[in-house]
Write a structure and sequence with these properties.
This protein has 183 residues and is α/β, with parallel strands linked by helices. The protein contains 6 helices and 6 strands. It is 39% helix and 16% strand.
C-alpha cells in the first residue's frame, strides 16, 4: 500500500484538490492508495501532553505510515516553507521506524513561480535525516490558482504528464526497494 499525505489542514485547500487527482492517477495505474488528510487528525494531537503520550485516535495515522510501502507527500508552500501542521505531523510520528528505509516522493504547489521548491527541499532534508529513500523525480506546480479550473481540477497536459511520470516511476521505485508488487 502507498499512502498519500495531504500536507495541510486548511479547509478547501488546493492541496486537497491536487491530491485527489494524484489519487486518480494511482487508481488508474491499479495501485492501492490510502490518503492521510491532515485535516482529519484528532484534535487531541495538538495538546502539549501529546508529545509524551500520543492520543489513541492518532494511532490510525502512525500505523498507516509505519505500514506503508511508500509515501507521497503533497505540500503547499506557506510563507516560503512547509505548513506547520505537516512538520508537526512528522514530529509526532515514531522515530526511527516511521521513515527509515521508506520510499517517499513529493508534489509541491504554490501561488508563486517556484511551485513549492523550498518546502520540498526542506522536506527532503527532514526525510533524509530520518533515513527515508527519497525518490528524485519531484513535481512542482507553480501558479496553482491559474492551473486549477473552476471545478478545482488540473487540465494542463504537461503537468498531468509529469504527475503520471512521477507515479509510474515511484511505483517501480517502491517495488524494487521493497520487493513487492503493488498492482
Amino acid at each position: 500500500m502507498i499512502n498519500l499525505i495531504v500536507g495541510t489542514n486548511r479547509p478547501g485547500s488546493n492541496t486537497r484538490k491536487v491530491s485527489a487527482q494524484v489519487e486518480e492517477i494511482y487508481r488508474n495505474l491499479g495501485v492501492p492508495l490510502q490518503t492521510l488528510d491532515l485535516a482529519d487528525m484528532p484534535q487531541e494531537i495538538y495538546l502539549p501532553s501529546a508529545y509524551s503520550v500520543k492520543p489513541a485516535a492518532f494511532k490510525k495515522f502512525s500505523d498507516a505510515v509505519v505500514n506503508a510501502h511508500g509515501l507521497i507527500v503533497v505540500t503547499p508552500e506557506y510563507n516560503g516553507s512547509m505548513p506547520g501542521v505537516l512538520k508537526y505531523f512528522i514530529d509526532m510520528l515514531k522515530f526511527p521506524e516511521s521513515f527509515c528505509k521508506r520510499p517517499v516522493c513529493f508534489v509541491g504547489l504554490s501561488a508563486g513561480i517556484w511551485g513549492a521548491l523550498r518546502p520540498i527541499e526542506e522536506l527532503e532534508l527532514v526525510f533524509g535525516y530520518r533515513k527515508a529513500f527519497v525518490y528524485p523525480e519531484r513535481v512542482f506546480i507553480p501558479g496553482i490558482q491559474s492551473v486549477l479550473n473552476p471545478q478545482g481540477r488540473i487540465e494542463d497536459a504537461e503537468i498531468l504528464g509529469r504527475l503520471k511520470s512521477q507515479a509510474t516511476g515511484f511505483i517501480d521505485f517502491v517495488e524494487r526497494l521493497d520487493g513487492v508488487h503493488l498492482k
